[in-house]
Amino acid sequence: MRIAITGTTSGIGKSTKELLESNGHKVLSINRPEWDHHDLDHLSKLDLRGYDVLVLNAGHNLGRSKFIDAKYDSWLNIMKVNQLAPMLLTELFMKSNPKGTIIYMTTHHDPGSSCGGAYHTAKYGLKFFIEQMRDETKDYRFVDFSLGRIKTKMRENWRVPLNDDLKNWTGKWGNALNPEEIAKEVVHVISNENISEIFVKHPKR
């Protein structure tokens, strides 16, 4: 298969890309600096013709803070990368291919995850977008891949001081899955056309 995936420089994206390539798939990485997801105008020039699967993995929560205290550019960029860029890439993929699978890395809201207003709004916006797209067409498979806590650099990259409580959310502590485990589930979803929703988390969470 020909598979395009965003955010492959580290974490889930990197592990997924490596596993897909080891299984013989041709993988297109959609990353900065060539494809900055903050620059939607430039991203709209991406060529996705001939691809079977699009995995929308890229995301961030940089400048994390309570919404009322957040800088305008911070939460706007969160919305661009986590919601608007995936919507744009969905449009490009559908206009370029008569059928295919699109996998969206979403999340579930955890009551203990404070200061994530823009991030959770963007991710839950994707969930509603997926439902809308399923209503509009049956030519594509739209997969909601909902994640629990994963050991990635996302929370380390919040760029805010981490007290002991917040360190627990970096994934270094507590029960969290490794990116390699998520990559296996992504490959499973790609190979199983009957999966439209999946929720992946540590069994002790």
Can you give a write-up of this model?
This protein has helices at 11-22, 40-43, 72-96, 117-136, 164-167, 179-191; strands at 2-6, 26-30, 53-56, 100-107, 140-147, 197-200. The protein has 205 residues and is an alpha/beta fold. It has a single domain, classed as NAD(P)-binding Rossmann-like Domain (Rossmann fold, 3-Layer(aba) Sandwich). β3, α3 and β4 form a beta-alpha-beta unit. α1 (11-22) crosses α6 (179-191). It is globular and about 45 Å long. The protein starts with a strand and ends in a 5-residue tail after the last strand.
Main attributes?
single chain; 205 residues; Rossmann fold
What's the quaternary structure here?
single chain
Strand content: 15-25%
- Report how far the terminal alpha carbons are from each other: 34 Å
CATH architecture: 3-Layer(aba) Sandwich
Task: Specify the helix fraction band.
Answer: 25-40%
- The CATH topology is Rossmann fold
| E-strand count | 6
The 3D shape can be described as globular
Largest sheet: 6 strands, parallel
Q: Cα-atom Rg, whole angstroms?
A: 16 Å
Structural class, please?
alpha/beta
- Text of the CATH class: Alpha Beta
Count of helical regions: 6
Give the low-pLDDT segments: none
Please, what is the average pLDDT? 87
- Strand order, main sheet: write it out: 2-1-3-4-5-6
CATH superfamily: NAD(P)-binding Rossmann-like Domain
Tally of separate domains: 1
